[in-house]
């Protein structure tokens, strides 16, 4: 069982932390719970979040379900499918991001229509 819970609109999603970015993960964990009205860009949602965290293991192509932080823009992002920047249908950020977690089942997001409120919290809260 993961200690991370993600809610998008009325959808509760199972999520897990990744070990690729320990500084960014620690900063996000310390900030939890976080929430925001997210903007949609293709099959990505992002909202404002300022963390004191560097760009770690930067990449633009990310796995489906990636929870990522974009330090240059101060945004937390959730990817579940192609974006306007995608090549060959993979999820792709507009600029390098740090992946800190992953939603394990993105299917509930397929029917999402437009913008949505996103909340990340520690499952122990």
TrEMBL record:
Region called Disordered, residue ranges: 104-125
Stretches assigned to the Cyclophilin TM1367-like domain: 4-120
Biased composition (Basic and acidic residues): 114-125
Organism superkingdom: Archaea
Protein known as: Cyclophilin TM1367-like domain-containing protein
Species for this entry: Haloterrigena alkaliphila
């Amino acid at each position: 069982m993961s200690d991370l819970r993600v809610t998008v609109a009325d959808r509760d999603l199972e999520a897990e932390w990744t070990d690729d970015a320990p500084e960014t993960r620690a900063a996000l964990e310390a900030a939890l719970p976080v929430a925001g009205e997210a903007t949609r860009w293709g099959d990505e949602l992002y909202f404002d979040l300022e963390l004191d965290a560097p760009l770690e293991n930067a990449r633009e192509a990310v796995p489906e379900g990636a929870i990522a932080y974009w330090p240059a823009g101060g945004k937390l992002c959730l990817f579940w499918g192609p974006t306007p920047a995608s090549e060959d249908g993979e999820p792709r950020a507009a600029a390098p991001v740090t992946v800190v977690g992953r939603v394990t089942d993105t299917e509930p997001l397929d029917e999402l229509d437009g913008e949505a409120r996103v909340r990340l919290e520690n499952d122990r809260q």
